[in-house]
Automatic annotation (TrEMBL):
The keyword Hydrolase applies. It comes from freshwater metagenome. The keyword Hydrolase applies. Gene3D superfamilies: Hotdog Thioesterase (3.10.129.10). The lineage of its organism: unclassified sequences, metagenomes, ecological metagenomes. This is Unannotated protein. Pfam families: 4HBT. Residues 51-125 form the Thioesterase domain. PANTHER family: 1,4-DIHYDROXY-2-NAPHTHOYL-COA THIOESTERASE 1, PHENYLACETIC ACID DEGRADATION-RELATED PROTEIN. Keywords: Hydrolase.
Amino acid sequence: MKTEAQFRAHLETVSLPPFFQFMGVVITEFGNGVCRGELPIRRPDFDGPPGFIHAGVIVSLADSCAGAGCEANLPDGATGFTTIELKTNLLSSAGEGTLVCAATASHMGRTTQVWDAEVTHKESGRTLALFRCTQMILYPKVP
């Protein structure tokens, strides 16, 4: 298991995917089986139905935090991962403020990881979504 210092060093050196950067996600906690992030709501870029953000923004934040957590917790010898399944229960929405995501690993195996995430609205404390995904762990191909 990595130490907190190792996770922080990893976060400083890893190149976040362009989509992650485009969204404006800020990682606030990174560790063993956990990743937390925040996303300021940008209007009108994130608009969906009048007055609310698009549901895809919420799902993208959850998937990004779960993915960053998975990448930081890859088993030895793994080269990456890919999401092979995801599900989201959308419970509410927001129009302004900041989205907060807490992603935690439910299973960290050699071939798959399962991550759960909860997205909340920072200002109201409302839960906006419950998310679960399965990540397939990738290894170098054996010739």
